[in-house]
Amino acid sequence: MSNLRTASQLSHLEALASQADDGVWQGQFRSLRLSSVFQPVVTLSTGRVVGHEGLVRLDYADGRGATPFRFFSGGLDEAGLVELDTLCRLLHLRNFQGQAGTADGWLFLNVSPLVVASHRRHGEFLANILEKSGFDPARVVVEIAESGVQDGDTLADAVAHYRQIGCLVAIDDYGVGLSSLTRLWSLGVDIVKLDRELLLAALARHEERRLLPGLVEFLHDCGALVLMEGVETYEEAMLALEVGCDLAQGFHFAFPAPVLRDRAQIIPIDMPRAVSSTPVGAAPVSSWPDVWCLQLVAAAQRLAGGATLADATAPMLDEISLLRCYWLDVDGIQRSDSLLGARAGRPRFAMLLDQPGADASGRGFFARAVANPDSVQRSRAYLQRGFGVACVTLAVTASLAGAPGVLCCDVAWRA
């Protein structure tokens, strides 16, 4: 009975789709005309186009544009919503296949939360249309909005269903509403699309910018690629790259269009866009870690010239962001007092501040500094326990009173 119902549904939808003389497929849904546009998905490291997201454009018979959100968010009953959702996927698949042929690019397809929640009744459509069209399911990325499916078991079943078909699965709009790290860990999805709101929050507030790399690392540990969506400016693209995202899409790279981008084409991260906030060719601005690296090298040179640790680091200690300076021997043991920044304020948790004898041999920045003499090494942002604030540690090899070691400074983290 299920196969008969699916065949009947497919036959009905195919009757709503028509192909124009130019080969483009369009759909008719009640008083609306449907068409497909595609937005490229690129790798942040190379700018290579690896896929496209299919997006629907709705127009009334008189040419007026309609807002898809109104129809997909409550303007239709269940039957109408399912019909519109499946018709969109049929059009995107046919238009994509007509242009991409047998290439290996991904097609990202959104699936309505209602269809996801009722996948046992409505989920067979995608498997059937893929089989009928001869399209490789492994090239389809089914996008599911996590916030649209509240029941965890239902979401897990739907993910398993689409993966059983052979499709990849992406969680869409992650970071909106009550996103669950625990649930995401158990789902085992292939791609997580971070919502633009996370990007804007990271640009606006230092705390979010510090935490975002940790979220990306967690998602990588879950075995998922991370895609930043809604990237509109060069600054946003660079932040997505900085925090470790693998993929991106947005106006900065390309606007949605009926024609696919050639997968041989590279869309570099510094591609100029009308909405881009940073012109291509602008001189790079030194970041604050770069400035601190220069100061630390100068302090190490003063130490090598015979200065005391206090005298060598005095210019740094007067900087507002400096928390402390200290020196480690070749075994990673702190042999000096912690010289506190003059304007850092009193440590919130002074009892937890490292003292002479503290062992930093297991810290990555120390090992990298020893392995790369004279090259400044930088830690990831972490909690400086004594001050109770986020910081990064910079370290470089330096001799103190003729003894080899590593000079370190903890600097309050900022974007």
Automatic annotation (TrEMBL):
Transmembrane segments: none
Gene Ontology MF annotations: cyclic-guanylate-specific phosphodiesterase activity
Stored Gene3D superfamilies: EAL domain (3.20.20.450), PAS domain (3.30.450.20)
Signal peptide: none
Top-rank taxon, per record: Bacteria
Coiled coil regions, renumbered to chain: none
Every EAL domain range: 13-270
Any Pfam family matching the protein: EAL
Protein name (Swiss-Prot/TrEMBL): EAL domain-containing protein
Originating organism: Immundisolibacter cernigliae
